[in-house]
């Protein structure tokens, strides 16, 4: 857990897991924000990724590219916890692009910002949260004038219940997601990702 400051950050861990628990800062105070891509078999983000720009916002791709296209490897499951912030704001130009993708279960509980600080109502960016199963309970997207694409096979807008832990996950095996059997892949994957996120390094 710490801070990485760069213009571009690419983290690929195919066949393994990835947890972003600190801060990745590719923001630019003199132009367009930078680019961040993170993908692995299972991805959890509990910290902050900042790709904001003084002109246009940059791009953040977690678990895959927009619409699942391109050459970026796809995550099997992706978790954005309630403590996570994905920022691709623009001060004067166009908001950036934020993609949260998996081929399996995608859990988006955090905050995504891809707006325009100048008040330009058409200057919002593009946000996508997609997965075969998608849960957006408590997730927030701030991209006025932009677009938020939700592209699941199934979407659950309820609550998992349970007590929060240090990663912002909420999962209670005795009180699983309403409408989904406790032994379902969705609940099993969520429990595993919560454990992964909560076991992240703290120093």
What would you say about this model in short?
With 203 residues, this protein is mainly beta. The protein contains one helix and 14 strands.
Would you mind describing this structure in some detail?
The protein has 203 residues and is mostly beta strands. It is 7% helix and 39% strand. The protein is built from 1 helix and 14 strands; from the N terminus they run E-E-E-E-E-E-E-E-E-E-E-E-E-E-H. It has one helix at residues 185-198; strands at 3-5, 8-20, 23-25, 35-45, 48-50, 59-62, 77-80, 85-87, 97-101, 105-108, 111-113, 126-135, 140-142, 147-156. The strands form 2 sheets. Strands 1-3-5-8-11-13 form a 6-stranded parallel β-sheet, with no helix packed on it. A 6-stranded parallel barrel has the order 4-6-9-12-10-7. It is globular, with a radius of gyration of 16 Å. The termini are close together.
């Amino acid at each position: 857990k710490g801070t990485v400051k760069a213009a571009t950050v690419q983290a690929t861990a195919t066949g393994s897991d990835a947890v972003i628990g600190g801060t990745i800062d590719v923001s630019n105070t003199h132009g367009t924000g930078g680019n961040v891509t993170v993908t692995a078999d299972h991805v959890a983000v509990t910290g902050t990724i900042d790709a904001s720009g003084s002109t246009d916002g940059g791009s953040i791709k977690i678990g895959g590219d927009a619409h699942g296209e391109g050459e970026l490897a796809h995550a099997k499951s992706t978790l954005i916890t309630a403590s996570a912030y994905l920022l691709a704001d623009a001060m004067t130009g166009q908001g950036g692009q934020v993609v949260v993708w998996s081929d399996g279960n995608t859990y988006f509980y955090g905050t995504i910002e891809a707006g325009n600080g100048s008040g330009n109502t058409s200057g919002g960016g593009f946000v996508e949260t997609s997965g075969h199963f998608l849960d957006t309970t408590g997730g927030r997207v701030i991209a006025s004038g932009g677009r938020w694409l939700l592209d699941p096979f199934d979407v659950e807008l309820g609550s998992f219940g349970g007590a929060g832990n240090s990663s912002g996950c909420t999962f209670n095996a005795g009180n699983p997601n309403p409408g989904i059997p406790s032994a379902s892949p969705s609940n099993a994957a969520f429990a595993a990702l919560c454990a992964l996120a909560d076991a992240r390094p703290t120093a």
